[in-house]
Amino acid sequence: MTPDNFLKKWRDVELKERSASQSHFNDLCALLGLPDPVSADAKGEWFTFEKGASKTGGGNGWADVWRRECFGWEYKGRHANLDKAYAQLLQYSVALENPPLLIVSDMHRIVIRTNWTNSVQETHEIALDDLIDGAVRDRLKAAFINPEQFKPAKSRQQLTEETARDFVAIAQRLRERGHEAHRVAHFVNQLVFCMFAEDVGLLPDYLFTKMLTASHLRPERFESNAAKLFGAMAEGGDIDFTPIDWFNGGLFTDNNVLPVSSEDIAQLLSAARRDWSQIDPSILGTLFERGLDPAKRSQLGAHYTDRDKIMMIVRPVIIEPLEAEWADALARITALVVNAPRQTAEKLLRGAELGKRTRALTEAQAIHAAFIERLANFRVLDPACGSGNFLYVSLKALKDIEHRANLDAEALGLLRGFPRTGPENVLGIELNPYAAELARVSVWIGEIQWMRRNGFDAAKNPILRPLQTIECRDAVLNEDGTQAEWPTAEVVVGNPPFLGNKKMIGELGEDYVRALRKAWSEVPGGVDLVCYWFAKAWAMMVSGRLERAGLVATQAIRRGTNRKVLNGAAGLDGIFNAWSDEEWTVDGADVRVSLVCFEPQKRPHAALDGIQVDGIGPDLKPKLTEAAPVALTENKGVAGQGTISGGPFEVAPAVARELLTAPVNPNGEMNAEVLRPWRNGDDLTDRPSDWWIIDFGEREQSEAAFFEKPYALLEAAWDAEQRRRAALGEKALRAGEPKTAARWWVMQRRRTKLLSRASFMNTESV
């Protein structure tokens, strides 16, 4: 078919959608030199009309045309509302296997919207007369054979980073003018949400941009103009005869606007021109937190914890168990529907057969309703939620599962309800008030984006549901010095603060650390801060208030005293998924972490570092299933317990190299004489730590002091540790052995016999 013939045939057609859509599409295929669906795929497995029309419940398909991994295509009659057709495709996108393109047409225009996950969505429109152009036809043909040509170059990550930078400069200037940090942060959150609300159509008629434009030449009016807008959003109202919906949520209750300059307004106008509808809430909070905290400004361009990392916990803790529950429910529903008597136009059911079908469908509907109720009441708690990354990703996961379950049920002829999961499904605890508010904004934006991206209207009256479920308080210690309580939830996920035992007093203060350890007497002393989150999660599981948990910790969680908080879960084989050594990002810095998912019961199998194992121990290594180890006679007199330093003799790798390259000491000897590589079992079975240890042997104090830098380092570390213990009321180093304590520069147990034996064996081997 030639372009002229195609245009001549379809330019004046006024037929209804059902009468003309398949004919139009077949002609379009001929125009593009492509086989139509019936010719290309007679079985309708990958290219077909009425995708989903074979669903048990009957009715129209989920898309008028579908081509796997290319597009879903919906037709409407001439002059129809194509936005409604697009909304239908969005609602059924999951059932259509999430095609990269969603296309709608009224036969006089074709609108192509991109649908790639985590990319900026773009829209391309082709008018009927445009098809005369060969380049346009080639572009449309690519939707059939190479949809990657439509993939947007910009990711949501890039867009979010750009929008964050726009606001950082404004926030910094406001701080430099003397405004309090949290007041600036709250004001910036209000501005951010206005831009988002404007671009998704919740704030009509571009009122925010109009307010900025009106204030640009007279910035002294900005405060009153913005306060008027914020006030209308807080309670519902109108501005210049334009009605504004009730936003609520608490974000605009305070309309005490900060004064801004003409330069600020110009930058806000520039920011408002970006597409705020597609920012990524999973990183929005992190970027703004870095930008608004003076101590973190240099980290704005740093790597952040991305969605894939968060999913390493959300998937095994939330998604996989709930998907398994739905798979079981779906199997029961399917059996009921398939085995029930079928009613068709040719065969109307009556009497006993009709009653049997009614009972089967009623039972199937009840199973589906029970699962949706389970999701609606499912609570995810992040007790260190920061700016809400885990909460947003978890909420999206719950909404995706609910949507999939609704589509599966509809395919079997059951009723599909409106989404019930929402912001109330996620609970948070966060000490920093600014971060807590950022978390609320991230969840609000994420909820609205999900509804729009899946073809549903955002909630109204109010638009923002109150989020008192995100609390601003300490997650582990109350003000009265007692253990903090957590709200009951189905699962706990999150990234608690990384603070080592030796840094806790310096960062948190002696009084706080002393109170924390007193309140948590069941937690071993001297553990890292993150251990208290693990201990609380396990206590809630034991008391029946929590099903599962997945937390991020430093690698120290699997070593020494720290790993005792995993003994309970490991003892029941309850650690079902763990990553022992992963890259993570904390405040813009890359660190190595462990991810631990656990529950109070054993599963048939566990996954460690992506590999199936029979069980995972508290050291985050596979549990041994063989017989208990036995002593080897060959090692008698050769192997035994290693040295016990009895003090802070360990030296970090970088410091050790400085000591080893230092000039000769006053005694004419190098520091290598008293500095030795230090190894333990983890260095043999895991990545070597490259730590060293100071060993003065049996030298007297005056002799040891000749090694000036090692001696000074040990003496300072020893004094600091004794002061720390005294402040906490702990026993002093070597308190039970006064003779050993008097020779503090010498290791407590050097194992001289073992060292002599090793030296003798080395001599023999030479």
Descriptive keywords:
six-stranded mixed beta sheet; 25 helices; disordered C terminus; 766 residues; alpha/beta
Overview of this structure, please?
This protein is of the alpha/beta class and 766 residues long. Helix content is 43%, strand content 12%. It contains 25 helices and 20 strands. The protein has a nine-stranded mixed β-sheet with strand order 11-10-9-12-13-15-14-16-17, with helices on both faces. The chain has a six-stranded mixed β-sheet with strand order 1-2-3-4-5-6, with helices on both faces. Helix 6 runs parallel beside helix 11.
Q: Distance N terminus to C terminus?
A: 90 Å
The number of E-state strands comes to 20
Radius of gyration: 33 Å
In round numbers, the mean pLDDT is 86
Q: What does the largest sheet look like? A: 9 strands, mixed
Spans of at least 5 consecutive residues with low confidence = 54-58, 297-303, 760-766
Task: Summarize this structure briefly.
The protein has 766 residues and is an alpha/beta fold.
